[in-house]
Amino acid sequence: MDTQSVGTPPPGKGRVVMLVDNKVEGDSRVQKAAESTAAAGWEVVLLGLVRSGKGRSWQIGGAEVRLLPIKTPLAKRHAERHRSLLRRPFAYPPGPLAAFRRQWAKAWRADVATRRAALRVVPEAVGSPFFRTMEKMRLALAGPVSRIVQRWISFRSGQTTAAQQAGRRLGGPLDRAFTAFWKAVKGKRAWRRLEPVLWDYELTYAKEIDDLRPDLIHANDFRMLGVGARAAVRARAAGRQVKLVWDAHEFLPGVRPWEDNAHWIPGNTAHESEFAPYADAVVTVSEGLADLLRERHGLRDQPTVVLNAPDRPADPEVLSADAEPVPDLRELCGIGSEVPLIVYSGSPGPQRGLGDMIEALPALDGVHMAFVVPNPAAAYIQSLLKRAADLGVGDRAHAVPYVPHGQVVRYLAAADVGCIPIHHWPNHEIALITKFFEYSHARLPLVVSDVKTMSEMTRATGQGEVFTAENTDDFVRAVKNVLADPERYRSAYDKPGLLDTWTWEAQAEVLDGLYTKLVSGHTAKARS
Is 90 in contact with 155 (CB distance < 8 Å)? Predict the structure, then answer.
């Protein structure tokens, strides 16, 4: 048996620093990449972030994970820092002044009311007759003036709130004009004005990366691309050879922002365009996305495809006795093995079609639905469960939590159907997403919407039914067809070699080969 520890690189390997802009937990691709790369003999440190509290660290197999606490003062919008004379000219400047003025006006009104009452009920305590006469005159003026001032302050406070809300949304004509101006003036460098928060990520990660002195930096997605590129530049300027791999998880121009924000897409795409040429190699999740990235950024080489495939399911007979038991999905839903169960697993959101599933549930007699999501208590998930209750099917809709990525396939296998009801968005059209492969290894018949790549694969393999996205009646048809003859669809997984290529183990070999090619087999230099 090899006595060398998993985390110690043998001659010819080196140190890989992986970067991701999340807390790592819940990001199965990043976790699997770190663990498998360490198992292949590389020394791996995975840097993520935590948005509140202190940083922490732990091990994933032979890979070390470090979460860095991030502060984002540069995320504050212009309206949160400056008074907007064009947007709301009567608004107070950002800060405590509006609240101070409101409270001061209330105190003045309260004082006037108390002084008037005192003249009626305890005049002697107010003062001499002459003072009381003067007080009545002052109050005759102070009453209406304080009322007018209070209304004026209330109006200005409302203007302040409206200005700050509009400024945070960044969706108005002024915001679009601001974006157009800086794009015209700075081009790819416009992100410095449109999305300055990207510097907060740089300032959080930079020193940690420099101290680690990596041989290769693996930057996950668009925010970390710039962080990794700048770190590689600093290292090369210091005389060290560092390679940069950019792992593009999605097509950024096709991302749907959570809010109407005129800065977000232009700013982040500009940032991506500036630093894409710095990458020594590009990795992505599908051939379709590889084509788009090569065309958009003028890449010399076709990006390497590393699928979002799951770990090869462990053989239950060889699992160690101390292995953590896999939760029973049906038990969590409170149903028996005879009850038809449709599962959705992954991040929730309106564009992912979960609402369409709920709307279809009344037409699927006796069928239950399980939503496997990061946070079952999240407001959006609770709104889905409330809608189900309003439709009279609340007892057949369930929200359950994620499990560790090594347990996902066995967890999902308890269902009868795996559902992918995503809507038509650019990124949805071009990839076989993680849940597609997880459902496949769980040998679940699929019900998928007619987004291009996924529907084509499902029809080609015969592993499920395709329905028209956002069409509830067609969704019901597809589910009923699958439930009527599930073995017809499961038999597709018996095709020799199909599931073998859809494993992370196969993808890890691709990634290890790319790393080895870039680093050229040189032993990592001594670090002091």
Answer: yes
